[in-house]
Amino acid sequence: MCVQISFKTIILNKNFTLIAHQCPSYQHFQSGKCFDCKPGSGSCALMGYHSDISPGLENEISPQVRLQGNIGNKFFTTTGREFPFCHRLYRINLELANPPTAENWVQGFLKASLHSSAGVIHLDLTPSGDMKLEHGSSYSMVLSHPADLGGNIKKVELNWEYDMNVLEPRTICLFWCNDHLYVKSIGVDELELPGRGKRDTQFNSRLCARNKKDYADISNRGKGVFVDICEYNASPEKIS
Question: What is the pLDDT of residues 182-221, one digit of tens each?
Fold first, then answer.
């Protein structure tokens, strides 16, 4: 079982519930392709002190027999770089619009502030550097934060900064290109860990731009605001 984690985090905190997701690679995990945690599916497992009560494993079976089913599988998770190491996992889904004025693609940096009744957290959506974004496409990423928002996301503020790269002439935007980012909606998924006698719960929030358009036009170094009003902005056939 392959786990991307420093085990000092487990030693420091016995109450640390560390969940890992089964995934073919860390890149797949980071891009949000392995975010489910359904009991009995083997799609996730607890690490450290709580590994003998992993979701979907029946209590009457011995821990040694239960854990053998995960041997040879790859599980990935992430923690904080400093105390507190224990982090919640959030999957951010970006749906980009493609109006006539948009460039086919832009590249730059994204940061988001998630607002809920439990508080506000700030996430860097491009921690590894600039990101190429094609208008009309969708993107997912998994990020971590020590705070638990309880799935009640009411507002997201998205900050966009365009990146001009002299090594890539198409990104040099002076007079002849559009450095705006057009975002149709933002989805936020937060997983509530399944436990004994409890079904899995995955909180899904979809937020849309607070204007008469069906997308937010975010200028370079600007900010877009998204709220949970998608059902009011969309026609009935667009609502899933």
Answer: 999 999 998 765 544 444 557 889 999 988 889 999 999 9
Instruction: Give the integer Cα–Cα distance in Å for 15 and 10.
Output: 9
pLDDT tens digits, residue range 19-77? 788 899 988 888 888 887 766 667 877 776 656 665 544 443 444 545 555 567 888 88
Predicted model pTM: 0.77
Distance CA 64, CA 38 (A): 21
Domain extents in the chain: 8-76, 88-238
| 142: Cβ contacts below 8 Å, ≥ 6 apart | 29, 30, 31, 32, 35, 78, 89, 90, 91, 92
Q: What DSSP designation does 2 have? A: B
Q: What is the DSSP string of 200-234?
A: -EEEEEEEEESSSSSSEEE-TTEEEEEES-HHHHS
Q: How many CA atoms lie within 13 A of 52 on its CB side?
A: 8
CATH 2.60.60.20 fits 88-238, yes or no: yes
